[in-house]
Amino acid sequence: MADLRCTFAGIKSPNPFWLASAPPTDKEYNVVRAFKAGWGGAVWKTLGEAGPPVVNTASRYGTLEVNGQRMVGFNNIELITDRPLEVNLREIKQVKRDWPDRALIVSLMVPCVEESWKSILATVEDTACDGVELNFGCPHGMSERGMGAAVGQVPEYIEMVTRWCKQHTRMPVLVKLTPNVTNILGPARAARQGGADAVSLINTVNSIIAVDLDAMAPAPTVDGKGTHGGYCGPAVKPIALHMVAEIARDPHCAGLPISGIGGIATWRDAAEFLALGAGSVQVCTAAMHYGFKIIDDLVDGLGNWLDEKGYADLPAVVGRAVPNVTDWQYLNLNHRIVARIDQDRCIKCGLCHIACEDTSHQAVAATRIDGERHYEVIDAECVGCNLCMHACPVTGCISMVEVETGKPYLNWTQHPNNPMRQAAE
Amino acid sequence: MPDIGDIAANRLSADQYQRNFDDIEAPLDRKRALVEASRCYFCHDAPCLEACPTGIDIPGFIRKIATDNVKGSAVTILEENIMGGACARVCPTEILCEQACVRTAQEGKPVNIGALQRYATDWLLDRGIQPFQRAKSSGKTVAVVGAGPAGLACAHRLALLGHAVTVFEARPKAGGLNEHGVAAYKVPHDFAQREVGFILSLGGIELRTGQALGRDVTLAQLRRDHDAVFIGTGLGGVNALQLDNEALAGVEDAVAYIERLRQADDKSALSIGRRVVVIGGGNTAIDIAVQARRLGAEDVTIVYRRGPQNMGATGHEQDFAQTNGVRIRHWARPVRLIGDSGRLAAAEFESTAAGGPGRRFTLETDMLFKAIGQVFVAAPVSEGGQALLELQAGRIAVDAEGRTSLPDVWAGGDCVAGPDLTVSAVQDGKRAAHAIDRYLRNA
Ligand SMILES: Cc1cc2nc3c(=O)[nH]c(=O)nc-3n(C[C@H](O)[C@H](O)[C@H](O)COP(=O)(O)OP(=O)(O)OC[C@H]3O[C@@H](n4cnc5c(N)ncnc54)[C@H](O)[C@@H]3O)c2cc1C
Ligand SMILES: Cc1cc2nc3c(=O)[nH]c(=O)nc-3n(C[C@H](O)[C@H](O)[C@H](O)COP(=O)(O)O)c2cc1C
Ligand code: SF4
Ligand code: SF4
Ligand code: SF4
Fold first, then answer.
1. Where do the 4Fe-4S ferredoxin-type domain residues begin and end (chain B) (predicted)?
2. CATH topology classification for A6-324
3. How many Å lie between the centroid of ligand 5 and the Cα of residue A77?
4. ipTM score here?
5. What is the pLDDT of residues B297-328, one digit of tens each?
6. Closest residue (by CA) to atom 19 of ligand 2?
7. Contact predicate B348/B334, CB 8 Å
8. A121-173 pLDDT per residue, tens
9. Across-strand partners of B231?
């Protein structure tokens, strides 16, 4: 069995699966249950300053349901922990003492004042936890108070706060990034500039998950009103993957460890994050949907996949897909594929035909042979867009096959149609 | 307990009767409907649609369920099939839409079209919504004979198109076999009557019950008093076994017994044999056998002269009978009914398996049901023993639009050739209504 042990920014855990800072990590009771179930680490629910804790609303969550599949997207309007700081610190200390082999990181969010960070870091260090994660991402409730995303959206602040933290603690400092920016590289580079040991991303995406058409208010509705919240769950995975990849292939961030977060529910999701350069992964929504026992398949599935592919350990896969992430202009425009229907698998639903006919290139002919429906790709019309393959409900029924063109690699920067092309030679 | 002629009522507890004659399948709630609807691929040129005799836009109505547009879904169904509610319950979908569903080919598990159709149509019926509006009056009148699926579908479509319709129904209640024939647990409670009420609530349809063609009115009168006539009288007679002793107490006609059963408010009042034999291989045989079991018969055997694949009952129906504890014996035909002081005691059978006249065997039985097919009775459309319109293979001859040999008379449903199904009867009625409409507007 492949070695799943993970060393991330100096933090060790028996596997790369950590629970993200959120309700699943809000107290000792939950975190202990998670560790018992086999989770490799946990980022404690974000702590704030000493003093009266924040207050949460009822209700707090909204979901996106697609075709009967629950929680494809998940949205919350919760704040950071609403439990007293001392209670959290005491529990963190206890958990770390009882579970020394697990990664225990503490998420923090305090006002943008050096003294505030300095004082909380000192108390957190006392718990003997493995590191801190600076929450610059929370998109609601906290940014109105000059914290969370309000900091995460301004690279200069990120750099400044990160630098303070590095000055005032020996612990590894992870900077959690908000996706609510136009270019993730700004915040990522600022974190590196400030001396961050790692970045983790993504936090939740600004969202209104739904409108309650009876209450005429955004959901979740609190006494007749609603507000924007933070979006996560399977639906945000593509956004997170892109941002992780951008950082992984940015020369300015080279070597900066990335903890991948966003929509991870299966070992395969995790493997994709690892391939794009994440050194560990964090999970929230999937645990909130199914409970901690999903860790069993996450660990088992990832291990089996590594074995099957002959990868001995995590470093063997981390970042392995990064060299193949490129910019559009470098894609080979002479590469040609066409759709091919496996007639033995075809169940005659006609979806390939209508998709191509109505919205693409009229390249799937619908005919009847002896009264039987028959669908066939017209090679000369097919542009190889893949739409039919994705619309087809039968796995493996439509495949895209390569057509030999005999033409050499040619990208947009070299293409005759590009007025700004570079000389071919 | 007497050894022969053990026929008795009240074999079960009130609770058991109640359970046995309730819905065989619980309706889908919203959540389950959404999940099931999401299994539909929304096929292009959908095979299921083609397999529905009434041509309901199945992907269309399912998608509307999936989007919670349940009213729109119901209207999509009812536009093509005004008895969409009954059909959702009684259609043998396993040989119609669901057989054609691409998911059957893909995974042997079709989208449960019937249950979804019921979900949508029940929603509308439960709310008492009338989604249709009649076209302005054409000034024409049409007589419809028979208030079964064919007659009612025809009447509804004609009324919708603006014609004034009078329905002549021999029985005291409308609904045809939905009310009198189909198994009780398929259309329990007062569903058939609620659906009739819904159909009539459109307006423009006058229902005259207790009015039989050939007894209370003649075809000539109807043709004289109306601009057109539609006949949907179904099948009035049943085949006989052609054996001596058919008059013994305990020998019953399945269709007549089911009609009594359907009309009995208190099922415990129905007498049923302890040991029951059913002769036949169609759905009527299955229905009487299962209902006999559900009335408390201990031992029910269907005897059919050929093999399982030859049975008129679908595989699904045969399985259903067997899970209800009915035994099916193939390849045998009855040759003798044995009586004892006027009561049925046993029936003797002969094997029909290949290899010449076969072995004989006897089944002791208290009750025997004949379910060997129904026939069209031409008397009501005859005069002086002579049919007034052309017949073909014993039923009324019609063209592709349902028109008979008389230029102003149409017919449809079981009384013409074709599959004897509720849904086909509805389609016949609807199609004839459009033909009549064209005829009236051109006249
Ligand atoms: C026991 C049984 C079970 C069945 N189960 C199913 C099933 O599960 N699914 C399915 O799809 N099909 C089933 N069928 C078949 C289905 O019921 C018929 O195909 C359908 O009812 C035919 O409709 P119809 O309108 O042609 O005739 P009917 O339903 O027979 O209606 C004819 C109407 O005309 C009236 N009538 C007859 N003679 C006259 C007259 N002289 N004057 C005035 N009125 C007259 C009758 O009283 C009746 O109301 C079953 C049939 C039987 C017998
Ligand atoms: C209810 C809820 C509360 C959250 N609270 C925090 C928080 O306090 N601090 C934080 O850094 N992230 C918080 N998050 C964001 C998650 O840690 C995580 O970044 C995000 O949900 C994406 O991961 P997922 O798709 O696996 O859920 C919260 C998420 C949810 C659903
Ligand atoms: S790949 Fe695109 S163009 Fe080709 S047949 Fe499929 S949908 Fe049409
Ligand atoms: S989408 Fe797939 S299954 Fe459907 S007709 Fe096309 S090839 Fe066949
Ligand atoms: S064939 Fe099946 S999947 Fe396709 S539209 Fe009909 S019910 Fe839906």
1. 31-61
2. TIM Barrel (3.20.20)
3. 40
4. 0.81
5. 999 999 999 999 999 999 999 999 999 999 99
6. A203
7. yes
8. 999 999 999 999 999 876 666 667 777 678 889 999 999 999 999 999 999 99
9. B145, B411
Does residue A365 belong to the interface with chain B, where contact is any CB pair within 8 Å? no
Q: Do B42 and A353 touch (CB under 8 A)?
A: no
Give me the residue spans of the domains in chain A. Answer: 6-324, 329-403
Whether ligand 4 lies within 6 angstroms of the CB of A355 is answered as no
- Residue identified by tokens 């599935």 is A301
Q: Give the span between the Cα atoms of A101 and A12, in whole angstroms.
A: 7
pTM: 0.87
Tell whether ligand 3 has an atom less than 6 A from the beta carbon of residue A384: yes
Which of these, B401, B203, B366, B211, lies nearest to B296 by C-alpha position? B366
Pocket test for ligand 3, best of A359, A364, A400 (most atoms within 8 A of CB): A364
Q: Output phi, psi for A42, to 5 deg.
A: -150, 140
User: B78 — contact with chain A (CB < 8 Å)?
Assistant: no
Instruction: Answer whether B386's CB lies under 8 Å from B245's CB.
Output: no
Domains contained in chain B, CATH given = 7-21+238-373 (3.50.50.60), 38-126 (1.10.1060.10), 141-236+376-442 (3.50.50.60)
Count CB-CB contacts under 10 A for residue A246. Answer: 18
A287 CB-near residues (< 8 Å, 6+ apart): A19, A24, A34, A294
Query: Which residues of chain B, if any, have pLDDT below 50?
Result: 1
Number of other CB atoms surrounding residue B137 within 10 Å: 10
From the list B35, B38, B43, the residue facing A350 with the nearest CB is: B43
